Each structure stands twice: as structure tokens, then as C-alpha cells.
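Quick question, first post here. What does this chain look like in 3D?
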Amino acid sequence: MSLSLEQWAALAFTAFMHGFNKTGILGCAIVTTPLLLMFFSAGETLGIVLPLLVLADILTLLLLGRSACWPCVLRALPWAILGIGAGWLLARETVRMGGAGDLLLRRTIAVVLVGVVAASFIQRRRRNNRPASDAGGAAPATPPKTWFAAGMGILGGVTTMLANNGGPAWVAYLMAVGLGPRQFLGTAAWLFFIQNAVKIPFAASLGFINADTLRANLPLAPFVFLGVFTGGLAVKRLSQPFFELLTQLMALGGALYLLA
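> Answer (accepted):
Ran it through. C-alpha cells below.
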């Protein structure tokens, strides 16, 4: 795979942001999807990024994996796998359509991103309106309803299969559960790792992951490590509401660009 300097720069930024996303501000990597789609096809984007996500997940599990709330993982995970299957079926049909299918997949991803950003805005407003006493403790405050776990699981599965960005759906799910910060990140780490591992054979079956994409991953691995390390430091210093708003606006702008 012969890449230009601009393509390598976009991939390095993406690798860094996905590492930063895991230990810093969950969901901020949404901005990388429209960026990559300016330089690569939808299939190439999914294939190149997925192994980087798995690497970032493994690093996060080493740091936070013991803090997970396993009932929260197991309640939503089957629905997430169902969503991954649905996303794979849609992606498979677009592959069969050739160039027109890639355009359709790009437009689908753009629509998904617009919906995810809109949901994130609503989530932020609800969080900001919560009383201080509802901040969440070290254990689940209330178990999520089955319908809510199913809805967020399917949404998270579809969005992660199509756009490698299921974060906002899982943030909404885990916030509703009411976990403390460390348990929140540990639970998210296991959810993401299992989903991304499940996605690998699906992506490979569509030709999205191949020898060329794997070779492109090797020089990008250090940027994932750097992102994980930086995220752990920055989360203590950044204004999270401002950073979330900035990344969501950037992602929305990129999604609207893809729809144009």
C-alpha cells in the first residue's frame, strides 16, 4: 500500500486519537472517521483502523481491566454482537455494488455520525442537568432496563462495525448505569475489546483487513501508545465539556462534508 504524506499524517493522528480516546475522553475519536474518509475508501478506513483499536483496547485493559462491572458488560454484549452482524450485512451489500456501494457506505457512515453526534449533544445536556448528588458511585446505581441495554447495544454494534465509532452509544449506556470513573473506563474497555475482536473476522471476510492494511499498521503502533499515555495525563487537566463539544462539532462538520 503506497501512501502519501497526507495519508500517513491522517493515519498517525487517527492512531493517536484512538489511544487518547481509551484513557482520556471516551468518544473523542469520532472526529477521525470523516477525516480518514477524505483520503481512503470506506472499506480501507475500517480495515486500517480496526487492528489499531484492538491494540489500544489491550493497553487499556492492562491498566483498567480489573475495574470492570461484568454484569453491565454481559447485559449489553449479546445485543452489540447482533448490531455488528447487521452492520456487516449492510457493508457486504455495499462491497458487492462496487464503486456505487462505497459511495453508499460513505453516506451511511455520514448519516450514522450525524445521529451519533446528535445523541451525544442530548447526552451532554442531560448530564449537565443532573444534580451533583447523582454523580455515580463505585458501583452501579440502578441496573439498566433490558430494552435500554438492547437499544444501546445494537446501536453501538452497528456504529462500531460501519464507522469504528460506537463510543457515544456506550457512553450513554454506562452513564445510565451509574458507574464510578475507574469502573466506567474498565467496563468500557472490555466492551470495546470484545466487540473489536468479534469484528476482525467480519472485516477480513469483506477484504477490509489484508496484508497491505496490516503492513500499514506497524509504523502506526507507537502513536497508539502515545495516545494512551497522553490521554491518562490530559484527562486530569483538560476541560472535558469543552473538549467533548469541540470534537463533536468537528465530527459533525466532517459528516456534513461527506454528505455534500
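The radius of gyration is 17 Å.
The CA atoms of residues 25 and 169 lie 14 Å apart.
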